[in-house]
């Protein structure tokens, strides 16, 4: 696999540091200022987002599995890939070296892969029953979580983008426990891909995972209620907390045994945010609107990362 999403974000930081956030949705008279909002034009549900090249992003329509493409400098994102019937789109990550977009398939129990150059569906993999929730990229493949099982799934990917094999990695230790109906959620990697970090919704916590052995350990941060998607850069992890309508910025210690919440990022425009993508000093956060099932407007909200 090419360099990870996290590493690409650092490389792109210099080019993006001067980025001025758009004013797609200005505040009306008498309202407090709102963060910039990008509409997923025509979407009837939403959940996942991935940083693409430069200021491009991809976002998923949860129920149909369709993929939207947008730019954080614009006010709208448009439908980009019409997914085959019966798919869902939850967490997702993009690999610039291969043009591949990896998508967690939710209740389908599957992982899906799309070529963003051709818009073609190039891979479909049955992982396990449950809810395939999120994905992260490392040098040796794409790693997926299942909210109903204490295990991870690694899809091996060559440097040329060949999808080479699938491995189930049973977790050991506290992250493997399933105390609630919804358990493992977000996933990211740190320390040059040597360590995975998973979010555990039922335990309100983050855990490190050794990708070779599946052994897990608690990162002592205090409770992180409603933890959902996570994204890391260096020793900083941004934790999306959906029904709290906030993102906590957590600074990890040197051995990843603990972390401190340094900042809580909120926005008047948040409405059950679930996942985020990082663009330099800007977070692009998806509103899932689980509190409004009939919502006919779904958005990406841009907020300062505040690192």
UniProtKB/TrEMBL annotation:
<protein>
    <submittedName>
        <fullName>Uncharacterized protein</fullName>
    </submittedName>
</protein>
């Amino acid at each position: 696999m090419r360099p990870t999403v996290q590493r690409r974000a650092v490389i792109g930081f210099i080019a993006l540091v001067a980025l001025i956030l758009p004013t797609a949705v200005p505040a009306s008279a008498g309202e407090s200022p709102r963060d910039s909002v990008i509409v997923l034009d025509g979407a009837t549900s939403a959940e996942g987002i991935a940083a693409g090249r430069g200021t491009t992003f991809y976002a998923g329509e949860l129920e149909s599995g369709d993929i939207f493409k947008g730019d954080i400098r614009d006010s709208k994102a448009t439908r980009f890939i019409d997914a085959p019937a019966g798919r869902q789109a939850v967490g997702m990550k993009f690999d610039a070296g291969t043009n591949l977009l990896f998508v967690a398939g939710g209740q389908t129990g599957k992982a899906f892969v799309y070529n963003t150059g051709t818009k073609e569906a190039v891979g479909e993999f049955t992982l396990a029953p449950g809810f395939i929730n999120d994905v992260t990229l490392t040098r040796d493949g794409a790693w997926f979580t299942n909210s109903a099982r204490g295990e991870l799934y690694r899809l091996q990917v060559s440097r040329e983008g060949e999808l080479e094999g699938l491995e189930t990695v049973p977790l050991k230790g506290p992250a493997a426990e399933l105390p609630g109906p919804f358990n493992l959620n977000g996933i990211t990697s740190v320390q040059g891909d040597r360590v995975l970090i998973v979010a555990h919704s039922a335990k309100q916590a983050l855990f490190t995972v050794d990708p070779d052995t599946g052994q897990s350990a608690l990162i002592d941060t205090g409770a992180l209620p409603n933890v959902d998607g996570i994204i890391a850069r260096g020793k900083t992890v941004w934790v999306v907390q959906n029904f709290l309508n906030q993102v906590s910025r957590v600074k990890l210690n040197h051995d990843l045994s603990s972390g401190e919440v340094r900042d809580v990022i909120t926005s008047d425009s948040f409405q059950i945010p679930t996942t985020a993508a990082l663009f330099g000093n800007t977070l692009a956060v998806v509103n899932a609107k689980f509190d409004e099932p009939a919502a006919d407007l779904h958005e990406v909200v841009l907020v300062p990362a505040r690192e």
